Amino acid sequence: MKKIPVIMDVDTGIDDAVAILVAMAAPQLDIKGITVVAGNQTLEKTLHNTLSVVEYFGRSDIPVAAGSSRPLVKELQADPATHGESGLGTARLPQPTVKPHSMDAVSFLRETLEKSEEKITLVPVGPLTNIALLISCYPHIKEKIDRIVMMGGGAFEGNMNAVCEFNLFTDPEAAQIVFDSGIEIVMCGLDITMKSYTTMEDILRIKATGTKAGDFCAEAFALYYDRYVNNSRLPGCAVHDAVAVTYLLHPEWIKTERANVKVDIDGTETYGQTVCDFRKGRDKSMDNALVCLDIDREKFIGLLEETCKYYK
Ligand code: RIB
Ligand code: CA
Hints:
By secondary structure, this protein is an alpha/beta fold. Helix content is 38%, strand content 19%.
């Protein structure tokens, strides 16, 4: 099977960690590297968490490069209420011994893309700061990016307010640069990720795998589950970022629709909103994204369970 070359960009975070676990266990993917950005927590913590996850789960071979410590314009507003002070909720992993790559994230992305004989899929699941810096500093590099399969935005809902999702809320200007770049985007926004929720029954099923990954997820989900059940309509927690990786592995599980997606950076109430034009009469030549709208939740939960079993 021909593997899909990918570079993930993360703000590890609980669901970022699960997305990394799913990606590292997937035979379909060739992970060329993981770049890190500030978002859920400070860059220091998101980098530490990413190094901890790749090392603890046996993939210290994957280069991890540190990126931006702040959004392009706004001040960083981390989310300890959702991801905890550490960024991994109540889960505790051994201190990592592996060091970050010597290059910063943007330089690592540029060099890896330039040297690659094939186009690479970028999988950003945090604020789009690193990706925006990459394509702004090195516009020629867009030719080496196959697609951007991202977690963020929402056609019909927000989580930071009525219309804006955290990753885009954190760095709206970066998101606008990425969505206006001309690179094909697969947008795994809240429309799909809020349908991929993990119930307590699912968490117990994951725990019952009796694996180190199952134990980690169950620990990490403890705070995360309460946060969602107490503050959203969901009967469980939304493992948002793992859905973006799932799209690459099983697009057949996911309902999508093409659209022209613009990011608002001028509105007061709509700052950071993904404005998705699905109108039948729109100028379809302006379409820039495949918007994910629904998922087979049971199959998604099965993938999480199978992922845990991969890590004995
Ligand atoms: O809105 C959910 C997104 O924001 C996820 O990527 C989560 O990790 C946070 O970054
Ligand atoms: Ca994230």
